[in-house]
């Protein structure tokens, strides 16, 4: 289960105790990572502990909530921010929107509101994490294809190699390259063949085999389809 950490920043101890207890009870994959009594201490802990979510009051000594949030954004710290606000401070708290804050909790914090708010934050974080993982995987898959293009490569083999499904990898490859797997592989092989034809003395059959085509006639047909010339014509 993917876990998420929360840092609570509020100058009122009773609020920290109450909200902290509620955070621990709200969702089983969310845990309280720490507490701070002002924005300056909160910013220090954010830099040190890298929480996923920060729940912060606005009016605090030493450094208020808005200034702390501004610093978070200026330092590009990847954290979801939830603003705690009393009714009298709500319009003031709305200023946090310019710093990308979209989640607010009104004091006193209700358990259902907290659970809903944390759920929204967790969903966004999980989406970002999955996007990062997908990007890393797609780059690894493309690198593998680029290194093994001369072999018999099929989606099923790639799926086995990377512990995924062929349908999922097909989608990743299309997203990364803008092309279907078969099209990307074919164009890669033909580009390599073009280079060998122009810069080596290898025979057509040898070149075909070296880029993954055991059947020279099939290679000739694919080569002409993509380049408009036969391998011999291209070399000349």
Mind explaining what this structure looks like?
With 236 residues, the protein is an alpha/beta fold. Helices cover 59% and strands 12% of the residues. The chain has eleven helices and five strands. The protein has helices at residues 13-26, 39-49, 65-74, 90-93, 111-148, 155-162, 166-177, 181-199, 204-210, 216-227, 231-235, and strands at residues 4-9, 30-36, 53-57, 80-85, 103-106. Strands 2-1-3-4-5 form a five-stranded parallel beta sheet, with helices on both faces. The radius of gyration is 28 Å and the shape is elongated. The model has no long low-confidence stretch (mean pLDDT 92).
Low-confidence sequence ranges:
none
Major beta-sheet overview: 5 strands, parallel
- Which percent range describes the beta-strand content? 5-15%
Specify the number of helices. Answer: 11
Give the ordered list of helices and strands: EHEHEHEHEHHHHHHH
Spatial shape: elongated
Radius of gyration: 28 Å
Helix content: 55-70%
The average pLDDT is: 92
Multimerization status: single chain
Structural class: alpha/beta
Please count the beta strands (DSSP E, at least 2 residues each).
5
Q: State the separation between the terminal residues, measured CA to CA.
A: 60 Å
If strands are numbered along the chain, what order do they take across the biggest sheet? 2-1-3-4-5
SSE layout and pairing:
Blueprint lengths: L3 E6 L3 H14 L3 E7 L2 H11 L3 E5 L7 H10 L5 E6 L4 H4 L9 E4 L4 H38 L6 H8 L3 H12 L3 H19 L4 H7 L5 H12 L3 H5 L1
Parallel strand pairs: 1-2, 1-3, 3-4, 4-5
Helix pairs in contact: 2-3, 5-7, 6-7
């Amino acid at each position: 289960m993917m876990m998420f950490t929360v840092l609570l920043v509020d100058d009122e101890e009773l609020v920290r105790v109450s909200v902290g207890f509620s955070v621990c009870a709200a969702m089983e994959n969310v845990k309280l990572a720490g507490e701070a009594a002002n924005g300056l201490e909160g910013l220090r802990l954010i830099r040190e502990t890298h929480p996923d979510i920060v729940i912060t009051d606005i009016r605090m000594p030493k450094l208020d909530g808005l200034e702390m949030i501004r610093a978070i954004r200026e330092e590009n710290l990847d954290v979801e921010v939830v603003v705690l606000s009393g009714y009298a401070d709500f319009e003031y708290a709305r200023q946090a929107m310019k710093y990308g804050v979209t989640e607010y909790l009104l004091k006193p914090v209700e358990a259902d509101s907290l659970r809903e708010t944390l759920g929204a934050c967790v969903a966004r974080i999980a989406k970002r994490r999955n996007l990062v993982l997908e990007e890393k995987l797609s780059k690894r898959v493309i690198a593998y294809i680029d290194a093994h293009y001369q072999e018999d490569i099929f989606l099923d083999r790639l799926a086995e190699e990377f512990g995924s499904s062929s349908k999922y990898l097909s989608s990743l490859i299309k997203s990364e390259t803008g092309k279907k797997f078969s099209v990307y592989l074919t164009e890669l092989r033909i580009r390599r063949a073009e280079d060998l034809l122009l810069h080596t003395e290898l025979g057509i059959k040898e070149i075909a085999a070296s880029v993954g085509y055991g059947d020279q006639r099939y290679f000739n047909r694919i080569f002409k389809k993509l380049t408009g010339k036969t391998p011999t014509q291209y070399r000349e």
